[in-house]
Each structure stands twice: as structure tokens, then as C-alpha cells.
Predict the structure of BTB domain-containing protein.
Amino acid sequence: MDCCVCGSMPIALRTRNLLCISCYEGTKGLLTFVSNIVDANSVSQANTAKGFANVLKLITEMKEREEMLNDKLSFLSGLVVAFKDEIHTDIQVKPSNGPSIPAHRSLLAARSTIFKNVLESDGCKAPPSETISLPELTHEELQSLLEFLYSGSLPTEKISKHVYSLYTTADKYDIPFLQKYCEHWMLGSLNLSNALDVLETSDVCPNTILKDSAMKFIINHIEDIVFSAGYDSFAVKNPILNVQLTRALLIEIKRKNKADSPA
């Protein structure tokens, strides 16, 4: 019979409390870990058995929640299919270059209050063949934006390539989840090659967390950043940011000197 935790049979058909060797050993290890936290003298054999049952129940519930989440994701993926296969699309979205991309009015309106207002305006109450333009986005960037609006995520290669344009677009069209998604990615991928870009983006679309993180990273790697290929163009393009960066560096140097000086 199938294991009640990892078996392939539907949950309703599995025999309760029947474990395979792998799940048994994992549960046993987890129980041992929990038991070690508690004073061994205060744990009776009955409590240990009860603890084992509770751990087994917890693991089973976690597995059920995981399966439910997978089913939900599979269900929602129908939106992505409708986008990719252009099923009953009723509006064209035009980028700055290349062909327009078919989409669905209702989904655009649901994802962005700005899109909702635009689509509900008198000038947009036209036949389904109507086109709306997003001239700030290239065809690739628009494709990634729409893919995110339909699926809620993007492959690594797309988010890494278009994160700055998607972040500013999310700010402009009021798409909070996309903005948070891009912010999380920028914070998690901050490095010598993109720190100045992240700092510039945080200034264009004001974001204190993003700006402070980028500023701190740059100060901690100031020599590598200042002598990098992109610093000169950054300084010319962003004089105010460069002044702020210089002041923050001087404050950090002063703080370190004070900490290193004898009391």
C-alpha cells in the first residue's frame, strides 16, 4: 500500500498511519530532534508516543497543503494558456517597437487600477480590435510584463534582463505585486555590476529600502564601484545621487574612525 505521506494514490484512498521507510526515518529523526529540546526526564513514554503521532499528523497536513497548492497553481495556469494561445483576446497592447500583443481587457483591469481607468474611459469603449499603447516598453519588455500579469512570476532570465523597466512600469501603472516582486529580486541579486543601476532605479521610483540597501552595498565596496566602467556615466547622469553617495561615504569613514580611536 502507498505511504500516507508521500504515496502516489489520492489522499482519500491512502491507509492512515502507514509509512514508507524514508518517511518513517524522517519522522523518527524529527521526533528525536523535538524530544532533545525538552528535558529527557520530563518526557514519559506515553508523551513520546503522543509526540510521534502529532509529528506524523503535522507532516501529513503539510503534504496535503502542498498538493492543494499545486492543484491551485495548475488551475490558475489556465490564464497563461489563454494568453499564449490568444483565446478570446479582446484588445491589442502596442509596445514602442514590433507588433502588438493580444490580451484580455478584464485581466488588465484586474491587475492595474490605471489600466482599469483607461479601459473604462469614454475613449476606450470601442470594438474589441482596439489597441492601447505602452510606448515606454519594447516588445520583449511588454511580453514579460503581460506574462507576469497572467502568471504572477517570470523565469530568471527574463526578470534579470527586464527588472528595471518592469519595476518602473509597475510604479507607473500601479501594479504593487510586480513592484514588490522586482524589489525582492533586486535586493537578492545586488552585486558589483548592478548596484549603481539599483540605486538609480530606487531614486526614479522612490523606495527607501531599495535605496538604503544599494547605498550601503556601494559604500562597502566603494573602491571597486568608483573605478568600475559604469561609474563615470552614472556620476554624470545622477549628480544629486552622487553627492548623496559622497556624503554617506564621509559619514561612514567618520564613524569608523571614531570607533577605531582609543577611548
